[in-house]
Amino acid sequence: MSSKPPSTGAMNRLGLSPLKVGSLTVEVVDVGDSVAVVLRGDADAREAGPELDAYLVGAVHPAVLQAGLRELRLDVTGLEFLNSAGIKALVNWLLAIKQQPPAQRYVIVLDYDEGITWQGKGLKPLACVAPSFLRLHPLS
Beta partners for 74? Predict the structure, then answer.
């Protein structure tokens, strides 16, 4: 069986299907020995925040723990906007990781675009929630 490049709908090592809510798409893709959670589109719809929260905390988090991953990437460079409910979903995910014993916590490397105003200003405070396991990685 040949390996396929990651694409929308492709299965990944965590066995998670993509999430689509309005114009927001969240996809888990294999990247080498790890995975990336890729957010694209616009998360301005009212239902996007709660759906994103349920996906990250209820599906991605337990799957990462079960797989024993030590690090994953969170790529929001293709995300045009994330409303306050979406930011809250990210905070809830970080809090779920923080509740794990330190030896079971995994690192999130957050790829973002400082050229997109809400990303440059809105994501930096997340580092205060999880300074030991969230690494901000601005793309130029």
Answer: 37, 110
Over the range 25-61, which residues count as b (16 or more CB within 10 Å of their CB) and which as e? bbbbbbeeebbbbbbbbbbbbeebbebbbebbbebbb
Q: What is the pTM of this model?
A: 0.89
Sequence-distant (6+) residues with CB within 8 A of 10 are 4, 29
Phi, psi of 65 (to 5 degrees): -60, -45
Q: How far is CA 10 from the centre of its chain?
A: 17
pLDDT in tens, 35-66: 999 999 998 888 899 999 999 999 999 999 99
Three-state SS for 109?
Answer: strand
Give all domains of the chain, ordered by start, each with its CATH number: 36-139 (3.30.750.24)
CB 113 within 8 A of CB 140: no
